[in-house]
Request: fold
Amino acid sequence: MPYFIDRRLNPKDKSLGNRRRFLKRAREELKRAIKEQIKTGKIADVDSTHSVPMPARDTSEPNFRPAPETGERHYVLPGNKEFTPGDRLPKPGGGGGGAGEKGAGIGEAEDDFRFVLSREEVLDLFFEDLELPEMVKLSLKEVVAYKPRRSGFATTGAPTNINVARTMRNSYGRRIALRRPKQKQIDALAAEIARLEAQPNRPGTAERLKALHEELERLERRRRRIPYVDPVDIRYNRFEAQPLPNANAVMFCLMDVSSSMGEREKDLAKRFFVLLHLFLKRRYDRIEIVFIRHTHEAREVDEETFFYSTQSGGTVVSTALEEMQRIIRERYPSREWNIYAAQASDGDNIAGDSERCAALLNGELMQLCQYYAYVEIIDERETEIFGTTDNGTSLWRAYRTVADKWPNFQMTRIARPSEIYPVFRKLFARQQNVQRR
Amino acid sequence: MSTTSTLLFSGSDWNFKTLARVYDAIEEIALGELKLDVYPNQLEIISSEQMLDAYSSVGMPLMYQHWSFGKRFVYEEHLYRKGRRGLAYELVINSNPCITYLMEENTMAMQALVTAHAAFGHNHFFKNNYLFRQWTDASAILSYLEFAKKYIARCEERHGMAAVEAILDSAHALMDQGVFRYRRPPRLSSERERERIRERLEYEEQTYNDLWRTLPVAPGRDAKKAEEEVSERKRSLKLPEENLLYFLEKNSLILEPWQRELIRIVRVIAQYFYPQRQTKVMNEGCATFVHYFIMNRLYDQDRITEGAMLEILHSHSNVIFQPDFDDPRFPGINPYALGLAIMQDIQRISTDPTAEDRDWFPQIAGKGDWLEVLLDSWANHRDESFILQYLSPALIRKMRLFVLRDRADDPYCEVASIHNERGYEAVRAALARSYDVAANLPDIQVVDVDLLGDRRLRLQHRVKNGILLEKETRDETLRHVRRLWGYDVSLVGIDSETGEMLYECSSG
Reply:
């Protein structure tokens, strides 16, 4: 009789730790591979599975191994059919007969092996190191939401907060200390008086009755003087206002869809927002996203319309800002919400409106917003002209003045799809020092 | 058991009672008829996930943590999920008691087969083969692994995961060069002893006095004296040394005690697996022979049903399937097939020899007692010597073995010998050589190091048959050697016959 052990109930995934170590080690390389793929491919592809070659660097396990195409080897093979000594056979393409080449065989198989990363893993790798800037800082700095928290007892307070148990305890202690006559004593006296009054002819009853009445009156007087519950007994539950970290966040996506935006510009802007959308959905569970698109008038739309519907018209950028302001006022009081905004436009605006935009931002919006990113879609040819200079469209020039004033205002330009991701990373890099100027 | 039926089981479901009944029946035949001598058995039932886990920790029940095991796991899991590879029916560990894993998915017939194969075949081989007896310590390995796992986890806590990983990476790269091939390794010491050695090491490090080195040397030494010094130096370091990990562990100037211990752990595990690599054919052949014999005997005794026997034979013939070299399924020579064929051939030669057998095997031909011959061969050979000793012309003809010579500078392969009168010896020798692990691994040794000078570690690769090293991995591995050694490392390739220098490279 052998010794049987049923191991099936043992915890599985004994090698989970090792697997995690491996993925961690491969992480850098996987990240690089994905970024490479995404830069060359379509941005929207972020949102799908990716097949990545088994990372070679950092996870290779080198050792001294024989080089396959050197020297002289002898292979012993089974199943000879027509060969006689001296026969010469052309070498197969791969080189080597295979026998005794087990090590090499395994190596090759590993090279073929590709990782398939799920959508979640891709996004995780893709958005690593990115975050909405200053999210927590503000919450701690300007505490605006409180939650009451029980903390002991107080002698003053609202009647609704009376703590009965604590109050009655105090009252009981005081009653004992001051010897407040008990109801039982009074009842006993009253009963005695009643009994004596029922038989009034007994000798000495009158005196006795008189004494009892006096006693009863004294006790009742004392009872009146020492109340059952005195104001000094009363205790109230005490609450302290505890500051609440404000994790509510809303992102405003403002996109120019006017006719000056060509297909290319719209495509770039949409890609930027797709990325932003994915990022927010991925990293923040409870973030609200407001989509505003504008031509000469602005409208809040749903996700579907924002990304897919076509509409055209003139350009009045300030309408979008006004719409945003209105929505904030109605739905997102800045005391309770961290407000972020990203705006994409080709920079064209109706004459005089850019100044109005700057005024709107300077006036109220920038005080409400945690962070405001402006992305200008420009022509590829314009990159040379504008480059890093402060020149640019009227909107760009107007926004320069805003950017100079507000450290939490960022602006940048995109000319081609491959720039979207770097720009995106720049805008949302973790621990970005906003006060860099 | 009912009196009307002698059957051990019917149907494919198993339970522990049936397993025990079958085990007892198998044990009776294994110990009684085959005269096997085994460690006590411990049979463990595991699920397929657990089998995958076991795969990735090199088949051991406990193992320290390292990312490379995770890599193996991801790889194995990938193949398994895609259905490209099935899982083994069993896994057996050379330990005392001998641990055998049985998969829960197996049918009862398979469990019987696996019990005979692993718990008796492999177990007997582990306990009796001279390589295992001399080079591994079955009763100490599990507690050693437990110590290793705990020790490495402790090191990770104290020194950080990255530092531990770096040392393990480097040590893993040199695992093939981390075994003693000729010198017998020391037994696994007990925990207490290890503790003492470690303390001793720490004491030596603390009291090391660098001043001794600066003692003035007598001036005017001549060339002869310098040469003497070199040989003296080599002698004191016991050079040349084939076990690179051992040398680095003992002599590296930059390693801390815990790092030496890590190298030692990797080295001990490499040494533990070394006999298994040298006895693949014999070990599997022995286990296959044993299960085949026992299952047939059970069937003859009417103790298993025809259906169960058919299932057993089906997986038996799958296991020993040997495709021809031109078959697309050809993966190399199947060790199960080769081992079993030679052993059955021994049985035939002992009992029913032909004239040719009498010429080739005068000691065993017609001896009658085939079991004695087999038990003796199992105990006293490794693959190379076993094939060289027992591969018969009859079997060479049956398998139609031939030798193909492959020269790097020749666009053609040449058929060197085939299964004919002139070729038998050559085929047999070539096949035996291909199973000589030591001869097929690159022969790299530490030849010199001047500890008082530039401390450059000089390695020498004795190139056999012009087979060089893969350049990329060679340079990477050298960097690992350098990490453990701390100073420059150079590797010189010397042709083992002519002594000509073929290449030179360094870690610089």
Observations:
- Chain A is about 45% helix and 20% strand.
- Chain A has three domains: 19-63+112-126, 152-239, 249-428.
- The CA atoms of residues 130 and 404 of chain A lie 24 Å apart.
- Residues 249-428 of chain A form a domain with the Rossmann fold fold (CATH 3.40.50.410).
